[in-house]
Amino acid sequence: MPVAPTPAERFIQGILPENPVYRQLLGLCPTLAVTNGLKAALTMAGAVAFVLFCANIVTSMIRHLLKPHLRIVIFTLIIATFVTITDRFLAAYMYNMSKTLGPYIPLIIVNCIIICRCEVCASRQSMFTAAADALGQAGGFALALASIAAVREVLGTGQLFGIQVLPTVWPNWIIMILPPGAFMTLGLLLGAVNWIQLRRSEKAGQTSE
Amino acid sequence: MKPLPPLDPIASSALERLKHNYILQAWLVLMLALFFGASLAVVHLRLGPRIEQNKANETRHRIPEIILGSARAEDPARQERALTSSARTISVKKQGRELLYTVYEARHPEGNLAGWVAKAAGQGYADKVELLIGFSPSVDAITGIFVLDQKETPGLGNKITTVDWRSQFAEIKTAQPVEVIKSGAKRPNQIDAITGATISSRSVTRIVNTTVEDLRGPLAALARNAKD
Fold first, then answer.
1. B158 interaction partners in chain A (CB closer than 8 Å)
2. How do residues A111-151 score in pLDDT, each as one tens digit?
3. ipTM of this predicted complex?
4. Cβ contact A85–B36 (<8 Å)
């Protein structure tokens, strides 16, 4: 029987080796939809991090009470609660951001990353491991969103966080902040990450021989 | 007619097992639902007023733009002579039902009426669309509209919030209803639909037309009274 990963392993794996976007291809809806600016992308990453962290901890707390055929209902219940709290919080304290993100905050309920972590890690391992896992995966998700958003915002508007970084002669590639830009950026970055991974594993293979 | 034979009593052990099982299986779901429901109620009680306040602030903030047009509202010379607004509720009887409209009355600093802004809502393509609709003081023309809340399709229907599209409503006369044309609106009461979002465009226009129909009379009467 394979040994369950330790908290540290869970944390590290989430950042890059099992990055939710680049390696598992999960949570692509917000990845494509809200990455036309760094601010929106990081707010979304923060919201997902909060929901993921809380959902993982609660799930881990009640993991001995879960019944196999009722677990998904319970995961969804837990996730929906924390998403609603996040949504109300944003509407109360970050009203404009809440309007920018619109339906994508409620849609975190169906974000596969969270239900996947509840299923894979939190419903099987201790609270500490589940918390480390949530932080790792949330960090990986934030990294992925930030990288895509940075590319799109710079090329599309010449700005980062709304501050001009490219000379104003830069012809803004409007397409980058429109939906096609999201698909192109994700595709290219996905290819790059996989290529680097492949190169590294090839090198590792050569040295071990 | 023969009476139906009585049903066999359910074996007590089976009944008990069934009951036992359902409750046993669902107790966690039920408990969590109750607990989470209660905590969400608390969150809503704490944050609800603040969210309503945010919405109200946004409404007030938008009133100059809707009545004066964005160019004139942003003119720094006008900023100091900001409009003052006060809210009132107007009830309209329609088909035996009473509809309530929140209407903001905007006044110039000198005290003369600048226009009216009505809050209206209706079904959009995806969900409820909430609008602010501005009228000239005599309610003979629309001065502009603003979308307060919408959940239309991102990239298509949500273009109803863009200034480009909204500005089509400015200066349309209220004497006849606004019409939506697929493209190339010619007559003064026609507007272009958003490409790929005809339903969203029509929904907004329908809300505007209904509001005009409901409020033209009462607001014009109020405006006349204010003058006297």
1. 102
2. 889 998 888 888 888 888 999 999 999 999 999 999 999 99
3. 0.76
4. no
Contacts by A81-87, CB closer than 8 A, 24 or more apart: A81/B36, A81/B39, A81/B40, A82/A50, A82/A51, A82/A54, A82/A55, A83/A47, A83/A51, A83/A108, A83/A109, A84/B40, A84/B43, A85/B39, A85/B40, A85/B43, A86/A47, A86/A50, A86/A51
DSSP assigned state of B141 = B
Collapse the DSSP code of B176 into the 3-class scheme (helix H, G, I; strand E, B; otherwise coil) and give the result.
coil
Chain B contacts of A178, Cβ < 8 Å?
155
In tens, the pLDDT along A63-76 reads: 888 888 888 889 99
β-pair partners for B78: none
Distance CA A14, CA A22 (A): 11
Query: Is there a contact between A66 and B47 if contact means CB atoms under 8 Å apart?
Result: no
Q: What's the first-to-final CA gap in chain A, in angstroms? A: 28
Question: What is the domain partition of chain B in residue ranges?
Answer: 62-227
Q: What CA–CA distance (Å, rounded) separates B88 from B218?
A: 12
Alpha helices (H) along A3-126:
7-15, 28-33, 38-61, 71-93, 95-101, 112-117
* B220: nearest Cα among B113, B110, B83, B99: B113
Q: Any idea where the domains of chain A sit in the sequence?
A: 7-147
Cβ neighbours of B40 in A, within 8 Å: 81, 84-85
